[in-house]
């Protein structure tokens, strides 16, 4: 999509590019870390101080207390968190429900995992989730529902009320919930709500995020997944 957008001089609604550079204090911290010789292999799940910082941020945002070693996994951007989640938790033939339009990597990694994609289209003007359609799309083969809130490219945010309805479907049907929250800090008109913070949902939710959009440093590809130990 990005190559085509460059070729045709089109507005690129594929990836969420920021159009200004990241803040000096973040860049200086990275330069300092390199100078301090923090340049060797990390643990597979992440550098302990960073996992702890992610857990502290999640606690501030949701009130949930995480074990940074067992419930936080650092990835190469949210995109790797998405890929790892699909490949780790989706088996061939599992159905996964997506809401279109969606970030293009979902379909790619779900295809690699052999999932059957069930797509529900969100329509203007408010891009509301058609609850009846969602209810009838859930089957005994549904393994997961994936959302992105705040949403690229519409800016739609899932309200607590809508998330509660979807949560009840997940709990009743034993369906996992994957949530891509890379734009959570770019919410200006209402509060961002994490599905993991709704009653009963932490145990079946994978929350995926990254620092790219928040700090306007999309090339750094520093992301993570948060999930209970049995999903991690
Ligand atoms: C909804 C959504 N999720 C994830 C990403 C990618 O995040 P990362 O750069 O951390 O892999 C993007 C990038 O545009 C996006 O729009």
UniProtKB/TrEMBL annotation:
Coiled coil: none annotated. SUPFAM superfamilies: PLP-dependent transferases (SSF53383). The keyword Calcium does not apply. It comes from the Eukaryota. Residues 11-229 form the Aminotransferase class I/classII large domain. Keywords: Aminotransferase, Pyridoxal phosphate, Transferase. Its cofactor is pyridoxal 5'-phosphate. InterPro entries: Aminotransferase_I/II_large, Kynurenine-oxoglutarate_AT, PyrdxlP-dep_Trfase, PyrdxlP-dep_Trfase_major, PyrdxlP-dep_Trfase_small. The keyword NAD does not apply. This is Aminotransferase class I/classII large domain-containing protein. It comes from Hevea brasiliensis (Para rubber tree).
């Amino acid at each position: 999509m990005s190559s085509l957008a460059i070729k045709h001089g089109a507005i690129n609604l594929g990836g969420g590019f920021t159009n200004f550079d990241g803040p000096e204090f973040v860049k200086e911290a990275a330069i300092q870390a390199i100078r301090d010789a923090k340049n060797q292999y990390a643990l597979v799940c992440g550098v302990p101080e960073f996992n702890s910082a992610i857990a502290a941020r999640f606690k501030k945002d949701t009130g949930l207390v995480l074990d940074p070693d067992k419930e936080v996994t650092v990835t190469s951007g949210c995109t790797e968190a998405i890929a790892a989640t699909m490949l780790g938790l989706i088996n061939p033939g599992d159905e996964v429900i997506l809401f279109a339009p969606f970030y293009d990597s979902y379909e790619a990694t779900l295809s690699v995992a052999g999932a059957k994609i069930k797509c529900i289209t969100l329509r203007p003007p408010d891009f509301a989730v058609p609850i009846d359609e969602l209810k009838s799309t859930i089957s005994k083969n549904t393994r997961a529902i994936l959302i992105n809130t705040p949403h690229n490219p519409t800016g739609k945010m899932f309200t607590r009320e809508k998330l509660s309805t979807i949560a009840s479907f997940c709990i009743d049907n034993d369906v996992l919930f994957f949530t891509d929250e890379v734009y959570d800090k770019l919410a200006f008109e209402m509060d961002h709500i994490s599905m993991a913070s709704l009653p009963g949902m932490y145990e079946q939710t994978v929350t995926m995020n990254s620092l790219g959009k928040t700090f306007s440093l999309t090339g750094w590809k520093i992301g993570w997944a948060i999930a209970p130990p049995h999903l991690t």
